[in-house]
Design goal:
about 270 residues; alpha+beta; Nucleotidyltransferase, domain 5; SH3 type barrels; 2 domains; 9 helices; about 35% helix
């Protein structure tokens, strides 16, 4: 994938799951998958199925999505739909509202049946909303209400995936006006911390460390407080703190400043 291309040029898959509980590592399982594949803002494909989770659906979970044990009794097991799902997701950018939850469940289910885990570019729409909007609540219902998108009240996978698609492009339009457009920027700012994200981050770290060793000055572009800035700097140190990478640098006024590498969009040697 050419990450420097406009994000709308890619196949974007808006994904949502319904589950038997919140913790996949404690044996909870998927009971419904819904997804829309979108290209240039148009739905070009969809994926939907109930899943037999091979366990009871606890009443608290039923109250959320209203999926009953009877409803999934004759549904396929995850291993029966896994290949079709993986094929559907292939060569796509996965977008979800709290994408870590959805991909965490999917990858654990894939590991249970000895399938490779998904290592796709993944964008967290919840993270986008929290960084762009100033609201009291950030659940999907609150965001859809803010954008006047309508909400049926039904908490099901296909409906929530479609709503996530609508929310994404409302947020996308805000970012477009601020100069954020290519996939690389979206991954840096709102990407899931998976192998794709780490590989992208490692390239920044290597470039910065080489510049520090050679005493080179840099032109950097970064996104902070909803604005893009460009600055000529002398990099001082790249360091890891609380699982986040940071750059300590000196600006033209000899001030020492620090920036999260996720906000760093461009690095150019000058």
């Amino acid at each position: 994938m050419d990450f420097k291309k406009n994000i709308e040029e890619f196949d974007l898959v808006f994904l949502d799951l319904e589950t038997t509980g919140l913790d996949v590592l404690k044996g909870e399982a998927i009971c419904e998958i819904g997804a829309f594949k979108v290209k240039e803002r148009k739905v070009i494909d969809r994926f939907h199925t109930l899943i037999n989770p091979k366990k009871d659906i606890p009443y608290p979970a039923y109250l959320i999505h209203k999926i009953s044990k009877e409803e999934v009794k004759r549904a396929p097991f995850f291993e029966e739909i896994a290949k079709n799902l993986v094929d559907f997701l292939k060569n796509s950018v996965i977008c979800a509202y709290n994408v870590e939850f959805d991909l965490g469940f999917l990858n654990e289910e894939l590991k249970r049946i000895s399938y490779p885990t998904l290592e796709a570019p993944a964008i967290d729409i919840l993270k986008m909303a929290k960084k762009i909007l100033n609201l009291e609540r950030y659940n999907l219902r609150a965001i859809s209400s803010f954008f006047n998108l309508g909400f049926s009240g039904t908490h099901r996978a296909l409906e929530d995936a479609f709503l996530a698609f609508k929310v994404f492009f409302k947020l996308r339009d805000i970012l477009k006006g601020k100069g954020i457009g290519n996939l690389e920027d979206y991954l840096s700012l709102y990407g899931l911390n998976n192998k794709v994200f780490k590989d992208h981050q490692d390239k920044k770290i290597t470039l910065l460390k080489e510049a520090i060793l050679k005493g080179e000055n840099l032109l950097i572009k970064y996104f902070l407080f909803q604005k893009i800035y460009e600055e000529r700097i002398k990099p001082q140190e790249v360091f890891l703190e609380d699982e986040n990478w940071y750059l300590l640098y000196e600006n033209l006024n000899k001030e020492k400043l620090c920036i999260d590498l996720k906000n760093l969009l461009k690095i150019e040697i000058i």
